[in-house]
C-alpha cells in the first residue's frame, strides 16, 4: 500500500512517516509511506492508494479530493491527537481503514 | 470559560472560513506555489550576500579576491526573481486547470508566461557589452508585473484552448508535432498582445502595474500591517489551521518585496529599510515552542513528559506541530493568551530593540528549520546581538508560558487524581 502524507512544508508529516514506517515494519507490512509539501502534492496523488492530510492543512482537503476522487483514491485528515502524539500505529490503522472502505 | 468558547466559535466559524477561501483562490495559490519553488534560490542569494557582509576582518581579508563577485549570485537569483515567478505562475496555474480536466499543458503555460513577461523589457544595445536586457525591474520590483502578466497570458492560453481555437492536425500526425501546432495560436495571441501594448501603443506595462500596486505595497509593508497579519496567523493556528500558510498566500509578494529591498541595502552596506519583515518574524517573533517543551520535560504529568521528549528534537528545529496538536495548544482556552499575546509581545519588544539600534535589522532569508539563536545570528548578517535577542525571546516566552502552563498542569493532575480515585473506589 502507498500512503501519501501532506502538510504545509512536508516537515511535520515527515516526522510521522518515520513512526509509521516503524509500525508497518513491526507488523510485517511492506508499505511505501512518504510526505510532501502541499505545493507539490498534486502530482504525487496518483501514485498513492490513500492521501492523509495534516490537521493544520485540513482546508486543503477539498482541493485534494477534486484530484483524488476521479481516481478513486480516498482522502482524509489525520486525527489531531494521533498527529500530535506522532502515533504511527494509529495512523497506519486509519489509512488501512480508508483503503478497505472504498 | 463561556467567553473562551464563544471566542473559539467565532474564530472557527466566522473568521477562518473567509480567510481560507481567499487563500484557496487559484491565483493566490499559484503565486504561493511559485514562491515556494523559488525559495531555495532566494535563500542562496541571501547566503552569498551574507558571505560578503560577514563582519569579521579575517574573513573579509580572506574573501577579498572574490568579494566583488559574491553579489553576482544574489543578482542572478533575487535580482532576476520575477522571471522565475512569471514562469512558475504560468506553470502552476496551468497545472491547476489541467488537474481540473482542461487540456492546458503546464509547460506551454510556463513558457507563454515567461516570454510574455520578457517581451515587456526592450532589449538594449551598448558598445561595451553588446545586447542586454535591462534587469532593473526583473527582481523583486517587477514582481507584480510578473504576477499580472503571467495570469493574463495563462488565461488567454486557457480560453483559446477551451474554445478550441487551435490549429488542428489530421489524425496520424505524431503528438509532438500536434502539440507544437496547438501552442501556436495561443503563443501568437499572447505575445502579439504584449508586443502591441509595449511597442506600438508604447505603454510601459511594467511601470503602469508597478504604479498601480504602489499603495498596496506601501500599506502592506508597514509594521502595523505586518502586526495585523501576524495576529491573524496566531488566531488561525489557535483553531489548528496553518496560519502562516493562509496568511502567506496573501502576504508573500509583499514579504518578497521587503526582502528584496533589505538584501539590496545590506549588500550595498546601507541601512536595512524594513524592520518588520518576514525574516524579522521568522528569526525573532515566531519562536519555537521549545520553552514549553522544557516545562513539559519537568512535568509530573506523565503524558506531558512523554510528549516533551517526543517534541524536543522537532522543536529545536522550529517544528511546532507535535506541541500544537499533542499538548494541545490548539483550542486550549488556558493557552490562548500566551500563544496569541505572548508572540505579539515578542513582536513589539523585538521591533523596539531593533529600532533603537541595539540589534541590527535582519535581512537574510534563512531556512525556517534553523534553530532560533543561529537564525538570529545569521539573519542579521552575523551579529551576536541578533543571536542574543533570539535567545532572550525564548527566555521571555518561557516566563510567559509558565503561569498558564502551571494552571493547565494543575488541572490535568487533578483530573488524573480523580480518575484514579474513581477507578479504585
What structural keywords apply?
heterodimer; A: 102 residues; alpha/beta; Rossmann fold; four-stranded parallel β-sheet; 5 helices; globular; B: 425 residues; mainly alpha; 2 domains; 19 helices; 2 strands; 72% helix; PTS_EIIC (chain B); Permease IIC component (chain B)
Named CATH architecture of chain A:
3-Layer(aba) Sandwich
Radius of gyration of chain B: 26 Å
Strand order of the largest sheet of chain A: 2-1-3-4
Q: Please bin the fraction of helical residues of chain B.
A: over 70%
Please write the string of helix (H) and strand (E) elements of chain A. Answer: EHEHEHEHH
Beta-strand residue percentage of chain B: under 5%
Q: Could you give the order of the helices and strands of chain B?
A: HHHHHHEEHHHHHHHHHHHHH
Helix-strand makeup class of chain A: alpha/beta
How many domains would you count in the coordinates of chain A? 1
The level of helicity of chain A is 40-55%
Count the beta strands of chain B. Answer: 2
**Average pLDDT for all residues of chain B:** 91
Low-confidence stretches of chain A: none
Oligomeric grouping of the chains: heterodimer
Summary, kept brief:
The complex is a heterodimer of chains A (102) and B (425). Chain A is of the alpha/beta class and 102 residues long.
How would you explain this protein's 3D organization?
- Chain B: It is found in: Cell membrane.
- Chain B: It comes from Oceanobacillus neutriphilus.
- The complex is a heterodimer of chains A (102) and B (425).
- Chain A is an alpha/beta fold.
- Chain A has a single domain (2-101), classed as Response regulator (Rossmann fold, 3-Layer(aba) Sandwich).
- Chain A has helices spanning 12-26, 38-41, 61-68, 80-84, 88-101, and strands at residues 2-7, 32-37, 50-53, 75-77.
- In chain A, β3, α3 (61-68) and β4 (75-77) form a beta-alpha-beta unit.
- Chain B has helices at 2-23, 26-53, 57-63, 67-77, 81-99, 106-118, 143-162, 175-182, 184-200, 205-220, 223-238, 243-267, 278-285, 290-297, 302-316, 321-326, 336-355, 372-379, 384-424, and strands at 124-126, 130-132.
- Chain B folds into two domains: 54-220, no CATH class; 226-236 and 257-424, no CATH class.
- In chain B, strands 1-2 form a two-stranded antiparallel ribbon.
- Chain B is 72% helix and 1% strand.
- At the A-B interface, α3 and α4 of A face α2, α5, α12, α15 and α16 of B.
